[in-house]
Write a structure and sequence with these properties.
247 residues; alpha/beta; seven-stranded mixed sheet; 7 strands; 15% strand; globular
Amino acid sequence: MHRPGTPRLLVILPAWNEEEALPGVLDELHAAIPDADFLVVSDGSTDSTARVARRGSTMVLDLPVNLGVGGAMRAGFRFAAREGYDIAVQVDADGQHDPADVRRLVGALESEQADVVIGARFAGRGSYEVRGPRRWTMAVLSFALSRIAGTRLTDTTSGFRASNKRAIELFAAEYPAEYLGDTVESLVIACRAGLRVRQVGVEMRQRAGGTPSHSPLKAAVFLGRALLALLIALSRPMSKGAKEMSQ
């Protein structure tokens, strides 16, 4: 339950067919951050994700079709903006993000004077590793986006992020729905709008259930798609809202 005088915090969980892992993830989150509100965005799930998400005070947006993580998060940011939340944190519904790290991300918004804080897997904590095309691509993306952000970013495809009120308002209007746009392009949009992006190290865990989204074949395709997403993001003109925020 929200404590008067403290920022209103919304944890957004985009979920597609996560009926197996989601109940345990929500129980952990409620225990770790009882003063937060929780919103599960069931992204056109064909299983019981929306039903099992209705635990305690958890709110549910049940999208009729699958929009992808970007579309689900845009719906979540619009909800956060409409309801006047001060901070929104994206957490995966599969259990890979440690609820204990949510506080670290939120704290970094203030301590780093940041608008967006990334929970980075390759920043000195944990033993998470990737190999092959995904590793090479992540290195290229991190180099390019570090230059754009003006700070070292080691994990630009992480979906574990905290956003303050300025970022919520921007993402409610501008959050990209395309594949990888929710990670790569959203950072470009944030930086171009003058938002300050920083990161903190987090430790990734094994999936609590469900099916991993990246097979070996998808990992190979990731290389081309990720670089294409970056090129598209850099070539698009700034939106009117982003221009106004940057001034």
